[in-house]
Amino acid sequence: MQYTSHYQSPLGKLLLAADEEGLIGIWFEGQKHFSKGLANDCSEQEVPILTDTKKWLNLYFAGKAPHWEIPIHFIGTEFQKEVWKFIKEISYGETATYGEIARKLAQSKGIPQMSAQAVGNAVERNPIAILVPCHRVVGANGNLTGYAAGLERKKALLGLERP
User: Fold this and answer.
1) Which of 1, 74, 119, 161 could in theory staple to 93 by disulfide, Cβ–Cβ 3.0 to 4.6 A?
2) Are strands 23-28 and 43-44 parallel, antiparallel or unpaired?
3) Best CA proximity match to 34, nearest among 59, 70, 4, 71
4) Roughly how many angstroms between the first and final C-alpha of the chain, as a whole number?
């Protein structure tokens, strides 16, 4: 069973979703790929993982790095899940480029190279905004590029993480 709840962030309303295994989604209302993967029969219900996620988000939006993990259940292709795991490892206040992620992924697979564009496509489909911090992925020269919830939100999220 999938459960949903809403959270009013300073950057707009978020839809949170979870199942028995973990958090499966955080989307800004109206963003690209909004609620993709949610079952039609999900229940709007406050379950412990969604309550914990809201506490995590409260700290985050207060400008503090939350120091506990929310269980995550990635739903996507194997390639997407691999990319999302790399994104999840980008530290609070840090950024990584699509190319850096592609190189790390290629190295982990023992292959000579990986397409940064393929990584970008997976990043765009990340269903768990903020906790899987795709806003920390930037272009080759540190340029802010693509963010499913809009570049203004990406700038704001990165700004929250910088002193």
Assistant:
1) 161
2) unpaired
3) 4
4) 40
Max Cα separation, the chain? Answer: 46
d(CA 26, CA 39): 15
∠ CA 67-72-74 to the nearest 5 degrees? 145
Which element (helix H / strand E) includes 99?
helix 98-109
C-alpha–C-alpha distance, residues 60 and 56, integer Å? 6
Torsion of CA 117, 76, 108, 141, to 10 degrees: 30
Q: Say whether 42 is catalytic.
A: no
Q: Which residues pair with 8 in a beta bridge?
A: 13
pTM over cut 0.85:
yes
Please write the tens of the pLDDT for every residue from 11-34. Answer: 999 999 999 999 999 999 999 988
CA 133 to chain centre: 4
